[in-house]
Structures are given as C-alpha cells and as structure tokens.
Amino acid sequence: MSIHVAAATAAPTAIFPTTPGWLALSAAFGDETPAIADCDNLVVTVAPGAGHGSPACYFPDKSTIEVDGVHLDTGVDPATVAPHRVGDRKRYRTAWGLLTHECGHAKHSVWHAPQGAPLGAVAAADLLEESRMEAAQVRRRPGDRYWLRASTTNLILADTRANDPTAAPRMTPQDAARSAALVLARVDGGILNRSEVARVERVVRDILGTDTLATLRRIWRAAHRTADDDAQRMIDLGRQWCEAIGTDPDEPPDTPDPNTTNQNGAGNKMPSRSPLANAITNAVAAIGSAVITEPAPTDPITQAMDARAADDKARQRAQDSAKEVFSGTGTGYNPTARHILGTRAPNATEYSAARHLARALTTAGHRDRIATKTRSAVPPGRLRMRGAMTVDAQRAAGAIPTAEPFTRTSRNVVPAPPLRLGIICDVTDSMKAFTAPVASAAWILAHAARYTTVPTTTATVTFGAGIVTAITRPGVTPPKVTEFGTAMCGHVIDTAINALDGALDLSRPTAARLLVIISDGQFEDTTRIPGQKMLDRLRESGCAVLWLEPDKRGTEPMNGATVHTLTDPAATARAIGKAATAALRATR
Q1: Gap between the Cα atoms of 37 and 44, Å rounded
Q2: Are both 1-109 and 319-364+418-585 of the same fold?
Q3: What CATH code is assigned to 319-364+418-585?
Q4: What's the confidence (pLDDT) of residue 49?
Q5: Per-residue exposure over 486-513, b if at least 16 CB sit within 10 Å of its own CB, e if not
Q6: 3-state SS assignment for residue 6
Q7: Could you tell me which residues are beta bridge partners of residue 408?
Q8: What's the rounded Cα separation, in Å, for the pair 548 and 564?
Q9: Backbone phi, then psi, for 361, in 5-degree steps?
Q10: Residue pair 405/391 in contact by the 8 Å Cβ criterion
Q11: pLDDT digits 0-9 by tens, 470-499
Q12: Which of left, alpha, beta for 120 (phi over 0: left; psi -120 to 50: alpha)?
C-alpha cells in the first residue's frame, strides 16, 4: 500500500514512553480519531521512536496509528495537550497533522493490490495514493487542510529525503517523477499552493519535459477522482505512470545506492544536493512559514477561553497602571506636577451645574421597564380560548386540569445600577487656550457624583508631558477646582485610559460606566492607535464614552465616542448631561 501504510506482515513498534505524559497524549489523540477517520476502533500511539521509521504510520490489519513523538512541536508538554479543544491543536500542529494524515489513510486508503499485480505499477500507485487520499480527506473534511499542510513539510522531507545529501533526489526522470507525485500533486489535491512549489515545478519540467509532466499531471488528477476501493483503476494508473517515465511496470523501482556518483558530486566523496533537492527543501521552508502565519481552525470554546485570557491580561495591565498613577493617599492632587497651578473654590454657577448634571446622571443609567408574560389556571388575566377548551376536555376525560388558560403581562422597572465615572483631561500644549473650561468641566463632572441618588464613583486624571497625573482618586469628591497649566507633547491617552480602567473597572459590566475625555484629540499614532484599541475594548464591554471637544475646528475625537462641543461647561451642564445620557444609552 501507500508509503505510510504498513504491510500486512508489519507489526506496530513496541514503544515504552519514558513519561506518563506520552500515554495521556496518545489517549487524547485516540479519542478524536472517530471524527477524523469516521472509524471508532483505532488505537493511537504517540511517542519518540514510533512511526515504523516514518514520521507516522498506519497499520490497517491492527487498526493502529503511530506518530513519532519527535515531531511534537518544541516546548509542548505532552501532558498538557487538550485536542478536544480545536484551538489547542495549533500548539502541536505538526503532530496533529501527522495524525490527520494517517486518519485519512484509515478512511480512504482501502484498496489493496491484487495478487500478481506488477510490482512497478503497484509502487507507482502507492505513490499516487498520498495525494489521492489527502484530496479525498479535504473533500470530506475541508477544515483538515490546515493540519495536512502542517504535516506536509515533515512528510515530504521524510519521503523524498531531500535534506540528506547521500540519498536526496537526483536529476533523473525517476526522482523527478517521484518528487512531482509527492509535491506537485498535492497542489491539485487542494493541499498546497502553486506559488509554494513553483521552483520544484520548474526543475521537474526541465528534467522531464513539458509533455511528460503534463502526462503525469493527467494521471494524478485521474487518481484524485478514483474511488477509495477501486484497486484495478489505481494499478492501471500506476502502469501508465511507469510508461510515462520510461520504467518497466513489471519490475520494482530501483533503490538508490548512496555510494553511486551524484550528478553534482564525484567518486565516493560526500555528494552535494542536486537542484531538485534544493528546490524541494526551499518549498518545504515556504510551506512551513506560510502555515505558521495562517489562521488555524478553532471552536467557540477555545475562542471564549482565548478571549477570557486576553481580557484578564488587559485587566491586569490596567490594574498595574492604576497602582502606578493612583499610588499614595489623599485626594490625588499632586502639587509637584508642573502643569498643576493650584486650586480654587468653585463658584455658584459651577455648584448649580454640578447639581443639574447629577440629576441627569441619576437617570442616565435607568433601564426601561421589562414586560414579563405569565400564565395561570385562574384569573386575573386574559382568557385564551384554546386553553379554556383544553381545560374542558381534560375535565370531560376525568383528568385533573393542567392547562393554564389565563395570561397576564406585568411590567417591572429594573433598579438603576451604580455608576462609575472616569474623567480624562488633556493638558498638552495644544489645549493651552482651553485650560479654564477643562478644569471647570472636570470639577463639575466629578462633584456631580456627590448629588446623584445612585452610588457613583469617580476618578480624574490628566495627561501631558508623557505622564498621567491623578487629580481625584476613586470615591473622593473634589472640594475645590484644580487649575491646570499645559505641557509640551506626550499625549499618553493610552496610559490614561488604562489607569482609569484599572481604578474603576470600566471594562467590567457590573455597573453603568461612563468615560469622559476632554481633549482635542491631536495625538501621536504611537499613543492614539493603542488608545483606540483600549477604547474599543471598553465600548465592547458596555462602557459609554463621552468626548468633550474644546472646538470643532482641528479636533480629532476617537472612533466610537459620543462627541459634544465644550464651551462654558457651567452654562452647558444640561447639554453635557444629555450627551452623557445618550452615551450611556448607546451601549445598551
């Protein structure tokens, strides 16, 4: 049979894993074979030294698959594999691809050469079986293409021995034809891409000629259309293959003698690799690089676990940033910061604006009443005639009535959730003309939390000169207005968002959350791009974002924020409240 299908007389390799992890890995791989091979009696052994001299091998009479453990990807502990999670398989894609390849043999390589079949034709048919089987496998399970591609690099090197100077393919028609069957035929089988093997195709064409290569391609394409159990057709195609390359179909293929002179070497010296061998190794490297960058098949469980791990990592970074920014005690006011000019008492207009804004924030997180339908056997409610008839029928039959013919709708108001409010003030040089309204708006937003009827937690930070400064800490209501100066450059909006996320849990959906950014948005790409990603993450978690821009001219708010132009914040507190309400409701 095929290169990776052992003869009937072959026995599986006796493998004694040195660690229990290999036993666990073998069992885990074996549990997944029924879905891949459509067969529930396969036994799998994965361990160093398995494979009967190949990367992997299938023993049809023993219903056994062996995979050489040396092909487990570097750094993977056998005891940690979880192939029942599709997304976990990428960690050991080579070994999983080898298993998939052998499962394909178990499912599709079911033809057997008849007694007395010509040996040369049988060997050629076995060569064609590699791509024929893989083509059948991806037709049945298209998602297996990725794994077959991952295993192809090891299989091609093992089958062609292209990286062994003493046994690598030579510039002969037989070696060129064999390389074409193992490499080029996989393109028509839907496994490899033509661009990946273009160099191999050029060398093979130079050796065989255009007409002979076209004939071989016609033969392997016919094999791809051959049924799994059509042995006679495969032998006929094997005979045609031998005739095309000028070998005797009745004679077994020649075994290369490593002591013979290579076209590129002489005498008994170590021969150098031929252009054909070099082309194969280059193709293998290109395939391997492509597989690494390709997205592997996954499943909802793995996606959810990966998303949870990424979210945990992002939350940990946010908490670390919050500890750095909000370290220490007190209100958070830092008189040593160069852009902090001091504090002043708020005026009556700002007090009034804070109260107006508090009323808006109190109702901003309110949810609409939820309608709930219930059924009952007795009033009150609306009588459903079908239910009433069912009750009558049950009584007439002498049964206890179980139907509930009355329906009623109740509408309940969901309690307003607590509110978390984060405030970011841009104090870079481009905001120099707006420091007064920025300071006033920041105080009004933070002080409004004192008057809300729902529990509200606020925190305020500024960014400029490459640093983030805490103005008010979580849970502290600022008694005075902090006045700002400006600092050159350093638009670290990403650090500011991260710090407030960590301090207020803005990305955790356990409260109504609002992030207010007061800025013109003139950021460097080095901070704007990661800042936008953080903003998108907050939005996806349900956090509202309100952007107060000082002037529409020249401003560049980030995507996804509700934008409002800031003039005199005391006079426009109602407008800010409406904008905050709109931002919160936009996340529902």
Answers
A1: 12
A2: no
A3: 3.40.50.410
A4: 87
A5: bbeebbbbbbbbbbbbbbbbbbeeebbb
A6: coil
A7: 374
A8: 5
A9: -70, -30
A10: yes
A11: 888 888 888 888 888 877 677 889 999 999
A12: alpha
Please check whether residue 514 is in contact with residue 490, taking contact to mean a CB–CB distance below 8 angstroms.
Answer: no
Task: Kindly write down the DSSP assignment for every residue of 481-528, as one continuous string.
Answer: EEEE--BSS---HHHHHHHHHHHHTTTSSSSEEEEEEES-----HHHH
Angle between helices 210-224 and 119-140 (to 10 degrees): 60
Give domain limits for the chain: 1-109, 115-296, 319-364+418-585, 370-412
Q: Which fold has domain 1-109?
A: Zincin-like (3.30.2010)
Nearest one of 367, 449, 446 to 413, comparing CA atoms: 367
Residue 332 pLDDT: 45
Strand partners, 467: 464
309 CB-contact burial (10 Å; exposed 0-12 / middle 13-18 / buried 19+): exposed
The three state secondary structure string of 141-198 is CHHHHHHHHHHHHHHHHHHHCCCCCCCCCCCCHHHHHHHHHHHHHHHHCCCCCHHHHH
The stretches in the chain having pLDDT less than 50 are: 1, 257-268, 329-333
pTM above 0.70, yes or no: no
